[in-house]
Amino acid sequence: MISSMSIPARMATPAVGADFNADRLALAIENCGIICQILQSEGLRPLHHSQVGGVFETEAEIVALLDELGPGVLGFGPDTGHLRWAGIEPASLVARYADRIGGIHLKDCFPYYLGGAEAAQGLSYQQLEGTKRLWAEPGLGVVDFEALLAAMPADYDGDYMIEIDEPSIDSRLESHRMAFDWAKRSLPAISQA
Predict the structure, then answer these.
(1) Where are the domains of the chain?
(2) Which is it for strands 75-76 and 47-48: parallel, antiparallel or unpaired?
(3) Cα separations (Å) of 100 from 31, 88, 170?
(4) Closest C-alpha to 113, from 125, 97, 105
């Protein structure tokens, strides 16, 4: 998966497209295309992985990247939590690019800091993660996984990866157990595979 991270203004004011620069976006798309060609020459299928804090943070930026490079160059490997944090409904973007999905991070997030810079209360990316009220174990947050899974292609045979960057509880083991139990309930076809 190909991603971009750590634009200082976006890490300081995450999920709102801070410090947008059209020239930087165009250059990043061009460079991503070059990287994709190199990966393809080695037999790999590159996928775009959405991340708050990087060049491709907003829906307009992600769409520009995917549309400009096209399905023959770049697939899609969305992160549902990062999409939702940036104000994007994961199910609708997944439906739009369903034919390009090669892997997906199933990540949930709480509603507390969603809704732009004001909702984030001036906290940076790292500070928000430290609150333990940004990322949620699957099913505890606001990502509509039912709609998301319905948007996935019926013949999808890629990976579903549950990801919790910073658990909302103190025990990482218990966080993993909660995620596993959610997967058994919510992904029955996968848990029987």
Answers:
(1) 8-188
(2) parallel
(3) 20, 18, 36
(4) 125
Beta bridge partner(s), residue 162: 106
* Whether pTM exceeds 0.90: yes
For residues 113 and 120, the answer to whether their CB atoms sit within 8 Å is yes
pLDDT of residue 5: 77
Q: Is 8-188 assigned to CATH 3.20.20.150?
A: yes
- Give the pLDDT confidence score for residue 115 in this predicted structure: 87
Tokens standing for residue 165: 């960057």
Residue 108 has pLDDT above 80, yes or no: yes
Please give the single-letter amino acid code of residue 65: L
* Angle, vertex CA 35, rays to CA 32 and CA 41, nearest 5: 140
Count of H helices and E strands in the chain?
9, 6
Distance CA 175, CA 73 (A): 36
Q: How many residues are present in the chain?
A: 193
Take residue 121 and report the two structure tokens written for it. 């209360």
How far is 139 from 188, CA to CA, in rounded Å?
A: 15
- The structure tokens listed for 6 are 């750590």
